[in-house]
Amino acid sequence: MADTHSYQVTVEWTGNLGSGTGSYRSYSRDHEILADGKTPIAASSDPAFRGDRKRWNPEELLVASVAQCHMLWYLHLCATDGVVVVDYEDRAHGVMTMDESGGGGQITEVVLSPEVTVTDPSMVEKALALHGDVHSVCFIARSVNFPIRHSPVIRVQRD
């Protein structure tokens, strides 16, 4: 039997401004994402859909999940393949395309742009190649139906 892992979160709407969802404009899209023992995440909808731009929205969280999973698996592959990474930053970008009616849409692409620093010039080629191996093991990448591209930059640590 295959191992399984479960993830329990609570999404709690905090946007009742007094009249609930009496009309499309009568409520806030604010909510919190909660999990036992973790700091709550203040969330909302995208500002294009009446959300609060100061809060995380589901689309940003999805793009962040893709980038996090890629990073964590990449670091794992580097560690097991002898590539010593000392710095990693990814400015990930997701695109949502609306359907023709404007009533719905979907994420159609995520582009990861990791900037990685390794300790030795001899590691650069392997460090680049390992990005291509991540997709086959990343839980999130294997679960989504849109393409995930990556455009990594590898640097060597300066003394």
Strand order of the largest sheet: 1-2-3
Taking all Cα atoms into account, the compactness measure Rg is 19 Å
User: How many structurally independent domains?
Assistant: 2
Find the structural class using helix and strand composition.
alpha/beta
What is the averaged pLDDT score? 93
N- to C-terminal distance: 50 Å
Q: Look up the CATH topology of the largest domain.
A: GMP Synthetase, Chain A, domain 3
Count of discrete alpha- or pi-helical segments spanning 4 or more residues: 2
Largest sheet: 3 strands, antiparallel
Number of strands: 9
**Overall CATH class of the largest domain:** Alpha Beta
Give the amount of beta strand, in percent.
25-35%
- What sequence of helices (H) and strands (E) makes up the elements? EEEHEEEEHEE
Oligomer: single chain
The CATH architecture designation of the largest domain is 2-Layer Sandwich
What keywords describe this structure?
single chain; 159 residues; alpha/beta; GMP Synthetase, Chain A, domain 3; 2 domains; 22% helix; 27% strand; elongated
Polypeptide structure, described:
With 159 residues, the chain is α/β, with parallel strands linked by helices. It has 2 domains: 10-49, no CATH class; 58-156, GMP Synthetase, Chain A, domain 3. Helix content is 22%, strand content 27%. The chain contains 2 helices and 9 strands, in the order βββαββββαββ. The protein has helices at 58-81, 124-134; strands spanning 10-13, 31-34, 41-43, 85-90, 93-98, 105-112, 114-118, 148-150, 153-156. Helix 1 crosses helix 2. The protein starts with 9 loop residues before the first strand and ends with a strand. The model has no long low-confidence stretch (mean pLDDT 93). InterPro entries: KH_dom-like_a/b, OsmC/Ohr_fam, OsmC/Ohrsf, OsmC_Ohr_Peroxiredoxin.
